[in-house]
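Review form for a predicted model. The reviewer records the input and the model, then writes brief findings.
Reviewer: anonymous (R2)
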Amino acid sequence: MRYTDVAIIGGGLAGSTAAAMLGRAGIPAVLIDPHPVYPPELRCEKIGGEQLDLLRKTGLAEPTLRATTLDGEVWEARFGYVVAKKPSDQHGIMYDTLVNTVRAQIPPSVETIFAKASAIASSGERQKIEFANGDALSARLVVLANGLNIGLRHTLGIQRQVISQCHSVTLGFDVEPAGRSAFAFPALTYWPKSARARMAYLSLFPIGGKMRANLMVYRDMTDPWFQQFKQAPEATLRAMMPGLARMTGGFKVSGPVKIRPADLCVTEGHLQPGIVLVGDAFATSCPAAGTGTTKVFTDVGRLCNVYIPAWLSTDGMDAQKISQFYDDPEKVDCEARCRAKAYHLRSLSTDHGLPWRAQRWARFMVRLAQGTRHAIRKRLLARSNGPQRSAGSAGQPQHGKLA
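Model under review:
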C-alpha cells in the first residue's frame, strides 16, 4: 500500500494541470492515468480571452503558451464578405500537445502511476484506490478528473444526467489553399447566412505550419450529412457557405476529418467525503461555445489554489469540506455562464423565430460597425505614419477588404 495526500485520477487537461499545480506547491500528490503520453483526441484546439487569464493563475502559462501558435488577427465574415478584422489573442494548439505540454511541467515529486483505477473505497479520513493490476493506493483526497469515463463514478453511486443529448457536433480537419502558399487571412471566423445551415460557425486558425478548421454544427449523428461531408468535404462546405470562397479562394481538406458529438451533462450524488470532481467529470460544456478550458482552469485553479491547501491543514475530509468547492461563487458562476452560453448559441444559430432572427441581424450590424471603425482607425494611423503597406496586406483579395 502506497500513501499520499492527493490522488488525481485522469491525466487529461484537468488532471495534469492539478498535478502540476499541487507538485509546484509542495503538496504530496500522485497522478493516475493509463497513458504515458496523452493520445490525439478532438477536443479543445485553441485558447484565448479569459482562458489566458485563468491559465496564468495556474502558474503554467509561460511554457504552455510557447507550444501554441498565436494568430494575432482574426477576420470575421458573413454573407460572403469580411465584416471585421480584429486583433486576436487566440492561441492554437492540438489537445494532445496541450496536455503533454502541461504534463511536462509536473515536478518529479509527483509520482505518475500508469494504470487504470478500478475501484475506490471512500471515507471521511482516507480513501483507498484499487488498480486493475491489483495494486492499491491510500490518499486523503481523490480528485476525479477522468472526463467522460463514467464507470468508476458509477461504483460510487455518482450518476450522470444528460440534459441535452448531442447538443452540438464538432468537425475538426486541416485545410490548405489550392495553388497558393498561404491563405490571405491570419485566422477566419465565418458565420452562417441563415438558421437552415444548422451551423454555429466555421473557425480557421493556424497551428504550427497548418491551417486548422473547427466546424460547429447542430445535427443528429444519424444525419446523412456527416457521411456526405466525409466523402466530399470541400463541396459540402461550399454548399453550406456559398460565399466562403471569397475569403479562401480554392482550397482542399487535407488529412482525416474527425467528428465529435457533445452531450450536455450534469452530475448527481457527487457530494461525498474524500472525493471531488473537476472539469467534464463534474459537468460537460459545449465545444461550440468554447467554454471547456474556461471550466477546467476555473475548477482546477480554485481547487488547488484555495481549497486543497485549506483542507489538508486540518484533520478529516468529510463531505462538508468538499461542499465548499462545489459552492464556490466563482465556480458556480462559471458553470451557469457556460451552460447559458451553450443554449443561447444553439438558439441563435438554429431558431427560426423572429426574435432570434433579429438577434442574428443585430450581431451582424454590430460586427460590421466595429469592423468599419477599426478599419478607419488603421487607415488614419497609416496616414499619420506616412505611406506604407500594413503588415500582411500583400496578396489580400480586394473583395475581402472592408469598404
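Findings: Residues 75 and 185 are 7 Å apart (CA to CA).
Further findings: Residues 354-384 form the longest helix (31 residues).
Recommendation: see findings above.
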